[in-house]
């Protein structure tokens, strides 16, 4: 800690902020988990017992922590700075030479461990425990994933040879999956293949399928209908013939993996940066819209650094005199400030999505606007 905070006042501020941050984070996470448990009680039945429901909710705690860390940092730092101001400790620090520039540098150092904690929770531990939590719930309830569409999940894929396992050729394949069960098993599959002129080549339907170790889909009870154009003298009046074949098992090479299918069932905001980047590449290769996932990607990249923005927003409260309001009032103001940031951030993302604004700009403007607001506040209170 001495290497990160070489000055005594830095270690003192860091110790105070971390202690208050930990207490507030624990209180907020416990509160949210309590409400999650209450909402989950209605699903407790059969093999899905109360202990499993509690385990399901507790495994979602890392995701909750990553969402709450910036707000906990804001509230905790406001409380610390308000207490320092009320006891004239911050005034002493200012007399000793702690100016705005040094204060911002200190806050940047204090935010580094919190940024690392956020990255661990949001990029590694959170997605892992979230997936494990869903698997526990699915296994106990015997349920399956399904999308928001009544027809299931639709995915665009590259076309291959007639046997489905050859090299990629001109055309497109659309895969429709009705349900995703446990252990990467899919059900109610329909596959539509078109040539480069968007003429229908074949329709496949399968009762179920699974992804094997070789990276191919093994489909069971497959019914395949192939369409072929017969040569006619009149090209404007083509005639097609159809042939229907049934197969007990069909192996199908595809770029659509279980990971891509599971991504479609998860909101982009809950995905990791790595998963978002891989899925954006898949959408780009298939010439599909990436706006929503690109905004989520840049928000995930920028999000850990909003902790520094939150700490900067709290710094002006240290310059306010004790007579300017009690500690409780300042903490309440910090809570309102944090809620306004969350609302503005979400609203701006939706506006950027509707307006097709540049994704990086859409993700960057809210934290940048609040950082500028913090600097304006610092400049104003430092002169009063």
UniProtKB/TrEMBL annotation:
<feature type="transmembrane region" description="Helical">
    <location>
        <begin position="68"/>
        <end position="85"/>
    </location>
</feature>
<feature type="transmembrane region" description="Helical">
    <location>
        <begin position="360"/>
        <end position="381"/>
    </location>
</feature>
<protein>
    <submittedName>
        <fullName>Lipopolysaccharide export system permease protein</fullName>
    </submittedName>
</protein>
<dbReference type="GO" id="GO:0015920">
    <property type="term" value="P:lipopolysaccharide transport"/>
</dbReference>
<dbReference type="GO" id="GO:0055085">
    <property type="term" value="P:transmembrane transport"/>
</dbReference>
<dbReference type="InterPro" id="IPR030923">
    <property type="entry name" value="LptG"/>
</dbReference>
<dbReference type="InterPro" id="IPR005495">
    <property type="entry name" value="LptG/LptF_permease"/>
</dbReference>
<dbReference type="Pfam" id="PF03739">
    <property type="entry name" value="LptF_LptG"/>
</dbReference>
<keyword id="KW-1003">Cell membrane</keyword>
<keyword id="KW-0812">Transmembrane</keyword>
<feature type="transmembrane region" description="Helical">
    <location>
        <begin position="301"/>
        <end position="320"/>
    </location>
</feature>
<feature type="transmembrane region" description="Helical">
    <location>
        <begin position="106"/>
        <end position="125"/>
    </location>
</feature>
<dbReference type="GO" id="GO:0043190">
    <property type="term" value="C:ATP-binding cassette (ABC) transporter complex"/>
</dbReference>
<keyword id="KW-1133">Transmembrane helix</keyword>
<feature type="transmembrane region" description="Helical">
    <location>
        <begin position="12"/>
        <end position="35"/>
    </location>
</feature>
<feature type="transmembrane region" description="Helical">
    <location>
        <begin position="327"/>
        <end position="348"/>
    </location>
</feature>
<keyword id="KW-0472">Membrane</keyword>
